[in-house]
User: Fold these one by one.
Assistant:
Number 1:
Amino acid sequence: MNRVIIKRYLLALLLFLLPIISLAAVPTWQIVPAESSLTFTGTQNGAPASGSFKKFTGDIAFDPNQLKESKVKIIIDISSVTTTYRDFTSTLLTPDWLNAIIFPNATFIASHFNKIGNNKYTAEGSLTLRDKTIPVTVLFDTEELSKTKGRVKGSTTIKRTQFGVGQGEWADTDTVKDEVQVDFVITAIHK
Amino acid sequence: MQLLNTENRFGLMAIFLHWLMAILLIGLLILGLYMVSLPISHEKLKLYGWHKEYGFLALALAIFRLLWRLTNITPRLSLPLWEKLAARSVHWAFYFFMFAMPLTGWLITSAAGLPASFFGWFVLPNLISPDEASRVLFQEMHRWIGYGLIATIVLHASAAFKHHFINKDDILRRMLS
């Protein structure tokens, strides 16, 4: 009787640990902030307006040979937004735009990766920005800098109004276009 | 009436450029003074977009006008020497303003790192890399040169009216027909 219970517990424990064990097989990566960047480019009055997020962290488990087991989670510190113009930066932080006080982070999670070419991939994931979570596909390419260091460069285009970025009169997409291009460079080392 | 200037009168092109730029520059001054007074809003951003586009149009017209001025003869001005000198000084002051205003404006938008589009045709390149201190400097220059332009327009228009209504000469009329 006792042995059966113990066996059941062991089995449950094993099932619980299984995802962790299998994940451990995929190499995990530590972001090097000084060699990484996350920028965005929108369009105002027909001309580009861009900025960047200075702080973001990530849990990256990625292996080109184990795409099924690969997982990426990037957490972006909204208040770290920076642009070349003070009023532009402060406007982005207001409730109408990113609302940094209420929504301090944006999160990108991806667990579906497809190889589309030599060192080229797509990541199908979801982006949570403000209080909206929307599927986003990111295109990226990988580069091996050394045995323990790699670099990923990628981009995607999102529609700001889908996330409620630009409330009220700013929801109008005539002066500030809906499409915002996001570009990133992530340099990471093996943990 | 002909396109080119003659010894005695302004040609059609000089008259057309004079009035077109008068309307454009006065419009830009009014728009500029109004838009800077607004709080950050969708309307303010839109007006800044217009101000930049029409400002670049003014620069393009100023280049054309200067070339036209340099390749044409200037009608004789039958006035006492000091009045002639004053009129010519104001005339060249306007050429300074026609270039200084759009160029300092272009420098502001460059220093802010927010380039401007020319009516959706193309985006003007930034003249300098973004820098907060430079932006503040060029903004002050743009503002004070703007005040100088307003004062010069008032002076120029007052002189034209004085000639028309008090001296009853043809100074104002020759810029009309």
Number 2:
Amino acid sequence: MSAALWILIIAAVLVVVGGAAFVATRSRGRDLELEPTPDERRPGTGTVTTPPAVEETPPTSSVDTAVPTEAEAAPVEVGPEVVEEAPPAEAEAPPQQLEPLVKPSFFDRLGKARTAFSGYLGGLVGRGKLSEDDWEELEEALIQADVGVATSMSLIGDVRDLAKGSGADSGEDILGLLKARMHRELEGKDRSLILDEGRTNVWLFVGVNGVGKTTTIGKVARRLVDEGHKPLLAAGDTFRAAAAEQLTTWGERAGADVVRGNEGGDPSAVIFDGVQAAAARGCDVVLADTAGRLHNKTNLMEELSKVRRVAGREPGHVSEVLLVIDATTGQNGMSQAKVFTEAVEVTGVVLTKLDGSAKGGIVFAIESELGIPVKLVGLGEKAGDLVDFDAPAFVDALFE
Amino acid sequence: MFQTLTDKFEGIFGRLGKKGRLTEEDVDEALREIRLALLEADVNLTVVRGLRDRIRARAVGEEIHKALNPAQQVVKIVNEELTASLGGETMQISFASRPPTVVLMAGLQGSGKTTTSAKLARWFKSQGRNPLMVGADLQRPAAVEQLRTLGRQIDVPVFSEPSDPVAVAAAALEEARRTGRDVLIVDTAGRLAIDEDLMEEVRRISDSVQPHYTFLVVDAMTGQDAVNTAEAFHQRLSLDGVILTKLDGDARGGAALSVKEVVGRPIAFAATGEKLEDFDLFHPDRMASRILGMGDVLTLIDKAEQVYEKEEAEEAAARMLEGQFTLDDFLEQMQQLKKMGPLGGLLSMLPGLPKELRNVNIDDRELARVEAIIKSMTPAERAEPRMIEASRRARIAKGSGTNPTQVAGLVTQFTEMQKMMKKLGGMGTKKARKDRKGDKRKGKGGSRVTGKGGVPALTGGGRVTPKGTKAGKAPLMLPGLDRIDASDLDALADELDRRR
């Protein structure tokens, strides 16, 4: 029995007693009572309070009785109609005759977001010898790109040493040294996606909530189809409402089969079914979606480990575990990468939403500290907006 | 929430606390650390600079000379500045005199707008309102379907049609008026702040429904870019508030500070879990307290209140400190504790715990084993564990499905704990205990008790309230925190470990 447990018990008693009096004096205007066990969310199969019919509300349901008739006349079919709202090039393409993808170049897309920062370091370039303030500015540029304090400091420290050794001291030289130093950090990584021939590969997509896992799978599917592969999508996010519908829409767009289970069901089972179906239909890769989960929820991370184990059962062959990270993520990204890697041995990172103003500097820290290569980058909402990670361009863009 | 920032400040102020008086260099040293801590917590660089300057201006001023304890003075200043930066007071939601009250949700992709819309609807419902949700996210596949599913779960209707977002919003407003819905929550598609077309679209939605409240939904994990996003949305939509999501993660949440600072509007709500009820008004004081190493004590107390009988707990604590704590009491405490949720989560909320301890993974099953052992003892053994010799030990082990070594281990640890508690109890001022007794005499009208010099004394089983709570100031320290500080607990843990 751990000492921590004892302390917890002791401390809890003290806190409660002290707190009781404290609470008595505090305003009691709380609107919502906390549930007694807020941590025990996400019950197992079948206990989620979702009505069984996901497709369309039957007119008898309590929800609809609350909506008077006219609203009912206008309810939306989510599906093809809604897809029309998507960029026309996408929506008009029937699944079987996909339009050729127009892949944006890495820099094209980044460019438009960067104007706000251009010139931020411009002043440095023209400068002669860098002052302390200039050095600090350089460091802050990295921090502002979410590279992180520790990584930024160590990089700048290295560059200072280099500068001393080489006698370089102009702003331009120093900036060049820094970029070179950062390029080197990201060099020589294998960024290819592994697809072993003759096997039922499984690519597992993991990450916290809202980073874009489902969308990324849609784009990857499209890309694989274009390359002549036969992907199958497994809707392993059985938790979020309508996640499977979202994936199904992407499957239609890409022309790939989708295997789905019940909402609230066991994600391992869905992915296992996906692997079986893929093997039976001769698909060479299963793109397995999982529910977003915060990495500090131990039970959910255990669930994910199980998903990985089950996905690897014959004939399944887990060849990629891709951690999806949102470019707006700050320093928490490092913690995400660490914990997810511990749980499911992440083989690569997909950096999404890099077409915004965020620079995604945290992946630099992830790659250099944890050695997990960034493999793909998301640059928009269209199926083609997924490109290979271009490390030099990425580093240069951090300074734009 | 904000956990790592808490660790940092604990480190800084722990060091400051050991010095007698603060010099200007001390303040600067502290400020450097605070700057780093805030940056690592993803607070925007510009915001950090402003905050640092404000803290310095106050700390190096005359205030510092009045200090009884300079470290506490700095803590107080930082606390106040953080609280002010986070929003000062909890936001009050008022309702339109001519319903419906329209709420517009905006934000980046994946920040949690759809889920939050449903949580907000549920919240309004709990306030006795009749919300209608609008699915105006026609961009993301199945977003409306997601909203409908959530709507069914909370029994709130959803309006949407496959036209265009502006038309949907306008039609929904009509619909709400016609059907007497008094709150309209408009869920919009996620959009990048730099996407001109989509930003223009959301502005048109806003124009057509004239929202009373426009909320920006912000992911607590957001980094430095939070400021740019908030600025852009604020420019277009003139935000009324911010909703912070995913606060149940371990992100340090600096984005909250940044956004608040840039937009100048309060953080209205916070979402702290995936369940639809994990959502409440944002409490800036709690958040700042947490940053300052107090743990999320208030939340813990809320939880505890639901499972503990106050009187019972007080008595148990008193017995504990007098060394009369029996295994029965212990069992009872453990069972109460179990009701409060997973132990790891509780541990993380306790103030003053060194982070090594806070991050310890506690297996809840250990509790079950301990429970089994204690339950296999006779009442006499529970009251007087010393009587347990080899044969009793063997019997207990058999009864609980453990082995005699484990039983012996438990007994030794328990005895040690008893001793520790006695020692700790002796440390608690006699005054506090006397006050407690006095309190009991006075009955329910019991007064608040504060230690000398405005620093709350060790609870010692007494009722203690930090000074100034009523005045709306955030409490400086948890009752007793000044005594049971990290080093005490450290020592306690070491001691227990050694004896094991």
Number 3:
Amino acid sequence: MEKTAATRRQFLIGSLTGASSLWLAAQWPAILEAHQYARLAGSAASPAPFEFFTASQAAEVEAMAAQIIPTDNSPGAREAGVIHFIDRALTTFDRDQQAPYVQGLKDLAARTRALFPQAGKFSELPAAEQVQVLTAMEKTPFFDRVRLHTIMGFLANPEYGGNHDKMGWKLIGFTDEYAYQPPFGYYDKNQ
Amino acid sequence: MTKFNDKSLVDFVIVGAGAAGGVMAKELSTAGFTVVVLEQGPRVSEKDFKHDELKFKDIYNPPHIGQAALMNDHARQPNTFRKTENDKAVQQPVVGYGQCVGGGTVHFTANYWRFHEIDFEERTRFGAIEGTGFADWPFRYSDLEPYYTKAEWELGVSGLAGSSPFDPPRSKPYPLPPMPVKSSGVLAERGARKLGWHAFPAPMAILSQPYHGRAACAHCGFCEWFGCEMGAKSSTLVTVIPLAEQTGRCEIRPNCVTRKIEIDESGWVTGAVYFDSAGHEHFQRARAVVLCSNGAETPRLLLLSKSKLFPQGLANSSGLVGKYLMVDVGSYAGGVFEHPLNEFKSIHDTRVIHDFYDSDPQRGFYGGGGMDARFDLYLIGFALWGMPPDVPRWGGQFKKALQENFIRTMYVQAHTTCLPVPTNNITLDPDVKDAWGLPALRVTYKDHPDDVKNMHFFRDRALELMEAAGAIRKWPLPIDDTEASVHLLGTCRMGDDPKTSVVDKFHRAHDVPNLFIVDGSNFVTSGRNQPTCTIQALAYRAADHLARSARSGNVESTG
């Protein structure tokens, strides 16, 4: 379980757990293909097919992501195309998570039925009921994983398939100019 | 590019092309010696460095697709960890270090603090500490001062001499003016003034102006964990290593993993056995060997280099190789402010506070440290760990907090002392092997109680600073048991007595006349956990002495 507050260890260890660089070298072209892929995926006219998810699975995961970073008066995970990031992650750098995702979606369906026996799919529930289901499973590793992937897909470079039109960056105030001159912020401007 | 044949005898083999190895390579090659540097990692360059958090900064347990690009790779080189020797070590990532040409100086934050005078003589001034090997260094600050100056001027460091009332004496100012202050720096100044403390411009190994043909920092904001695509971070990759290669006497050999230092029957080293990138074994002959492989891999390599003469590991008659491991400890507080700080821009920290640098017996424990005001999380890391603990983990409130806090947050980080405890060490794991079939690096580490008390003391100071700076929200980050480190110190300590140290005060192994060890492993005490500046000053000093000894024929077997 991830803790809400960072520990010193997480600050450090977060940087220490590494995939093999050989593996990385082998995978990098595939990962970067996500760039093109995202472009396709992001255009509503010709939605890209999912590589891992079925359309039905994708709808469920996207509905989860859309509760983690919801759409309100600004775009959320859905508009940012997080689902395409996740689909790509599961066929590239995080393919170890394929089975847990499949199992997690079964668990999601079971919890949905348990709480709302009349309901069909999680993604078809009203928002308030979706929140109830997710609240019941927010301590599971599957929820943590979807949360992590949602955050990544919202804030990572758009070339990975999410953060469509830099929506995540715009929301939090990050700019990708990568060259600045002082003043940088309010307090150094108004010393 | 100079290439030496394996079979040719070179003057020096240096193992590791990092903070110390880069300096040693340049100093020895410009002094006229032939040098081969064996580096485990790849040769990287500016074009490899992208602003890509997912590629270069691992996020949190799996998945992690990057980072191994510039750092050691725990899949191929596993670590194991235990708290005490009675525990069974468990495989987990423990040590992190730069693994590319340039080593940790490629991805480091570039904080470049000199040690103070006290750091070299703290045992004398503070007294003994139960259960530790707390000791003075075999020389004083004044002996190292010229080499601090040399490092700052050769590599390129920005700062403001005389700006801290606690600074030790210096023979020259910094070569470059300080980096522009950020909002976090202004707030630290504001808070420090209120508290009667002193915030001063952070000394940084980053160029505030063009220097020696390199461009000034563009303030892109991607320093820590990233390589600098401008070449403005003063890594050895862009400073001394090119100078070494220009001599025509130095070959940097990347992707070469050294597994053993060989010795002859009379106890002199003869060269290094290493694997190339294809896994083929080679032997590079040399008149002398210099280990610059960091405080974890240097002792591991010595322990791997067992022989009839040295059954418990090369240069280990004292039994101290691997012992007294000191790591990076410290504490944090977070704070949110009313107006945008936009801390994602520019370098990570611009103001430092040294008011509590020295240990004070009145606190009831040993410990000192320094603090800086900083922001060193990137976007995903911030969303995962950067916010106040009561922010919901998902949903509309989570999104709102992201939106409001990302540009309004800063942290105060304390960098604190770590005591040398004999049972904290690097050993060879008896079971786990790396990708080359060599015993994995095993870390045994348990925080000394004084170090923990000190972290709590500093976390309280960090919160005070946040309050005084006007934070509208502030929170402490948990202090938990240390199980990971990116600063690796103390495991081949220096000293005058061969019974209580591994190398002498000029870095020569007490046991082996032509073996030298120059890296963080030589540290007798930890300093305030900003070791790079001192590692490099030590390297300049060691090289100066070594070049003179070598010229007088004093490092080569005559047998």
Number 4:
Amino acid sequence: MRYSAFRIFTEALRGNRGWRPAWRSPEPKPDYDVIIIGAGGHGLATAYYLARVFGITNVAVLEKGWLGSGNIGRNTTIIRSNYMLPGNEPFYEFSMKLWEGLEQDFNFNAMVSQRSILNLFHSDPQRDAFVRRANAMLLAGADAELADEAQLRRELPFLDFDNARFPIRGGLFQRRGGTVRHDAVAWGYARGADARGVDIIQNCEVTGFQIKNGVCKGVETTRGPIRARKVASCVAGSSGRVMALAGMRLPIESHVLQAFVTEGLKPVLPGVVTFGMGHFYVSQSDKGGLVFGGDIDGYNSYAQRGNLPVVEDVCEGGMAIMPMIGRARLLRSWGGVMDMSMDGSPFIDKTDIDGLYFNGGWCYGGFKATPASGYAYAHLLATGAPHPTATEFRLDRFARGHMIDEKGQGAQPNLH
Amino acid sequence: MLINHPLLGPRDAAEFVYLGDACLIYRPDPEAEDAARAFYEYAYLRDNPAGDHRELWYHEQGDRSWLVVTRNTLSHEITKVELARDVALARGRDR
Amino acid sequence: MSQKNRIAGGQIDRSTVLNFTFNGRAMQGHPGDTLASALLANGQRLVGRGFKYHRPRGIFTAGSEEPNALIELRGGAHREPNTRATVVELFDGLAATSQNHRGPLGFDVMAVTDLLSPFMGAGFYYKTFMWPKSFWEKLYEPVIRASAGLGSLSMQEDPDSYDKGFLHCDLLVIGMGPAGLAGALAAARGGARVILADEDFRAGDGSTAKRWTWTAWRGPIGRRRRWRNWRA
């Protein structure tokens, strides 16, 4: 069933009784060509591209809860390709280009809104670092624009330019960056994959792997055993728990990241603003709420909630840069499980177990990578080779000394 | 989150800086045959359990001691707090 | 003044009159009123419009669970959008305005969307607005964003300063209804350091509005007379 304004009109005339479910709820078959563990953004995107681009449709996506219930369902919706390192930036720019064509591709309005993202700088050295990053972005085919204080005063007059501790001296714009409606991404990919024959099996938790002589032949689940030639884990913060079932330890710690939204307000903020020095970033959703967040709490956690000192820190960061938000009210706060890696960069790789693949380590930046992660993972599963933009995302890169460390912080996950 | 410091009593976790898994106390022997592999695993691989986790916290805003805290990563409940020095000495290290 | 919606009794001080405005219209209330009770006393039942279809909205509850009576409190840099009228303590000089309507509150032109409700079912926007490709950012989204949200920020810097403090106690009782009051009293008598907290500006919670609870209650600690001392 194709979605369009015409469809809405005709269905309304029929009392809206003709709408069909966007995806099926099939029983799991005893075997598949590929099993993807995790029906989050990346897992569903992988299934979609396996079917649409590589013609592999005998695929099951297994989800322990309901599809889209993980980090894809509760993030701060930002898309950008403003990374610096050559192992990262071409991948994120590939993702940005996929975002730009996504809605027409999967016939679902994901509300891709390239309203710009602005990184503020407050000192000369920070400006120099941003210039270097902007050049790296341009070299990778992305867009970048450096703005001085006068330009920002014109575009965003409500910022606190004369803040005593963090005066705003300018910023780095990526005009093509912005926000996307996160739930629509999960639903659009799910509907597109399902329509092409992929089975999305919800309420199906993986409880073990069928591994014999170093070869993975399938999984054990709460809905019975399922065999597959390839099993692909894609579970973000739960990576440690799932891969432990295969006897693997990972260069990942699971941490909590909190995020917040205010009650709905009339439009005040045209784009995304980030205040790196103060660990704060904010945008305004199409429903009117200000969506913002800051740093991770800093300790290992699977609790999906954080603690009060971070709430205060994040609000302080917001008040420092945008004192007009003081009279707004916080509507909702939540915490998710972030797969923080040892260098802050992700993995899309085979494992040492034949037939078992791993996608994870996205830290708090997985949402923007959703299309490219799905595409690159599908590429790896279909062809056996990494996608050209994802060749550095290897599990063994630490042993080889090839860290992709954007922040330059070293091997401590909670610093990335 | 309150951490019951063995010497100072209950302190807010905000007084501390978190390092990570307490396995970092057990530094491999650089002279051993498999030292390269052992150091790689020591530096980069983690158990990352969903459950009880022994971890290192540094009391930066207090007495600047290191603590080994046993905390459940699902509930944040802390069941044991020891001085890291005591943990290391018990394992045969000289400090 | 005669306010025909008022009933006898309650905890308000009828000897003092407080002046306030709603959408510029002068009204009166008494100390102990919430903005919501004062609006009802003045015969003002329509206080807002719904988020999506701009249907008329009145006061729905008597507490912090209020979903409808969201108003903008104060003006200028002190303006607070999305404030529930049911939790605001009425003060002299209070100025409140309604939110989320174009034209007067009683005749919101955006209510025309209600006529389009068959075409705007839940999630309809996921199924359309995809063509032409450039129109999402040029037309559809700006229109959606302009009609979204309820209250507006003043865009000026928040002029107030805030402080925070730390307190320590043996027992924190949240809620000053009969159970909270009884529990706090019992604990305090047992020697505990007790902090008793409530979101409301008055103790007793809904029980002050319900006379029958005082005569029906039999507690382990005090008799009715003692509880009357609490209420004064």
